[in-house]
Write a structure and sequence with these properties.
The chain has 533 residues and is an alpha/beta fold. It is built from 24 helices and 14 strands. The chain folds into three domains: 124 residues, ATPase, nucleotide binding domain (Nucleotidyltransferase, domain 5, 2-Layer Sandwich); 187 residues, Nucleotidyltransferase, domain 5, CATH 3.30.420.150; 189 residues, Orthogonal Bundle (Hypothetical protein af1432). Helices cover 49% and strands 17% of the residues. The strands form three sheets. It has a six-stranded mixed β-sheet with strand order 8-7-6-9-11-10, sandwiched between helices. The protein is elongated.
Length: 533
Amino acid sequence: MAYFNPRQYLVTILTSMSTEKLRVAAIDLGTNSFHMVIVEESEEKGIVEIDRVKDMICIGRGSISTKKLDPGSMAAGLAALRNFMVLATQREVPVGNIIAFATSAIREAENRQEFIDMVRREIGLEVKIISGKEEAQFIYYGVRNAVTFRDKPDLLFDIGGGSVEFIIADKSRVHLLESRKIGVARMMERFLTSDPVSENERKLLEQFFASEIFDSAEKARELGVTRAIASSGTAENIARMIGAGTDTDGVEALNQTGFTRHEFESFYRSVISMDRAARRKLTGLDEKRVDLIVPGLILFDVIFRVFNLKEVVISSSALREGMVIHYIASVRGREAGGQLDIRRQSVIELAHRCDWHEPHSRQVARLSLALFDQLKPLHGLKQHYRELLEYAALLHNIGVFISISAHHKHSQYIIMNGDLRGFAPAEIDIIGNVARYHRKQPPTERHPLYSQLKPSHRRAVDVLAGILRVANGLERGHRQNVQSITVHDEPKRIVLEILARNEPDIELWAAEGHKEWLEEVVGKPVVFKASVQ
């Protein structure tokens, strides 16, 4: 089935039942672009994006050398902010919940106060100028809410127009917060005059970058950093361009996608010598970044080499999302940088936004995991898939929020378009497909969203869907009747011994009707035996 506007469609249905709502608009006044994101937050349903807007006005144009914002840039900035305020008001954001932070270009301009006063006087917006270290801290908050951190430290970097922030962090702590004045607009104004970039200018810029990031790279080497997480428009444009030249599906869904050092270097060699006209033809490159992408590519190349990275992962969240998280945490009285499991939290938030039947879904998840664990000698899937099965089980029924009819298809659609955080796109595809096949027809290559999975992922979906179908059958009465499942792997059959509180007639009837696909994937007949406590 086709949908006109997936993001707006989900925003509409997923925010219709919120309670204790808090609407916030966060405005990031960057060197190249002004951005605003509007969100709605409730204690139960978490953060839901309502709208976002960007105006690439380049307020820092020329200010790197003059140290002053020119009148034309200030006028353009004021006009953009006036439009942002109108949109925030239309989206019912209280004026007191509109926050605005200015970064590199404005904080370094000698006439910054003139612009800040103009904004306050003419549109009533209070803009706070933040330091480079504060900017890095907010970026950290934003990124950790979108990408899964590891036990091992990663490098986070955010490429702005005036500055680049470097953070080294793992899942439990921050090791480094730094801001360097090597943003792409600043570097273009200072170093680049030729098009295409000359070898001499490129080498000068490489040397400058390397000297500026040397201390951060030393710290990264001490901590054994091999992976980076990159945010910002520059990083997203590079990821889109690299993705456009591969077999990668869904390059628009960039969060927690990425590319290897080899993939980047191959792409870099092919484009760095292009002139402006050739760059304009590159798929995935924003028209307004045709020139700025050159210092961005050179910086990426230097970061890969100096930090000796193996891969870069993209974060779709950064400064403004971090601003929102910090603001909401202060209002709610909690710690913005506290520990969180963003994958599980994101799944539960989506479930709540779809008004899920929690006891039923948690029971199906519990039974699914019990079957996964005990059938492991037969299915042989890695432990990673256990987590994806649990999330598919928790979300399998959320499509009922739209319609009972074909709700398994609606569940898949919501999962795959619901902005789940912390997951790679391939993982979301698996979760969505497993949920889709919890009832009705089992997996088939006639279905495009299943057939486009790579073979190992189709195999995982086959097994997980087989397990979920039986677990869902054993919860057919929505009464949490089945207390435990014990698997007996006999030579010619699998016996599932069911212990229930009450006679499990309806559960056994439903499970019998859904066991065929599990029998197919494990290669043995499945037999149920039941007893009552």
